[in-house]
Amino acid sequence: MAHRSALVPVAPKLSSRQEQLLEALRRAGRELSGQDLHARLRASATPMGLATVYRHLRQLQQWGRVRCRHLPSGEALFAPTECDEHHLTCVDCGQTHRLEHCPVHALELSGEELRGYLPLFHTLEFYGLCPDCQRRQRRTASEAVEAAGQSASLPSA
Ligand SMILES: [Zn+2]
Ligand SMILES: [Zn+2]
Hints:
Largest sheet: 3 strands, antiparallel
CATH architecture of the largest domain: 2-Layer Sandwich
Bound molecules: zinc ion
Number of strands: 6
Number of domains: 2
Oligomer: single chain
Strand order of the largest sheet: 1-3-2
């Protein structure tokens, strides 16, 4: 039996289109949506349709070569599996920051927890309110209190 690294799933050889997609994702250096990827490939010598892009992305995900995460807006972002990145996202304005390091890099599941699964990648997202949105919400809240106070002090007719 051929030697096989413990972390590389048995995947069929990628087609040239799939290689092209993976290469475009690597070159981007950041996560891309299917639309972004489609737009980047449109400029290349061998463009492909949006449906084809999604079909290959799904296949690459199934083979453990591409990872995917969803934004609060529902948009799916893709990156090569080896890219171990995590984000802090504002639930109000959607502003997102990449964390400097992976907080769970050393975390491993026990053999029992893995139930025979081959681990490929993990996702971990932090959500909160950015400073701007906190300020705006505080302002809105204090304006509401002020408005309530004014209407309470109005002389009754
Ligand atoms: Zn915000
Ligand atoms: Zn991580």
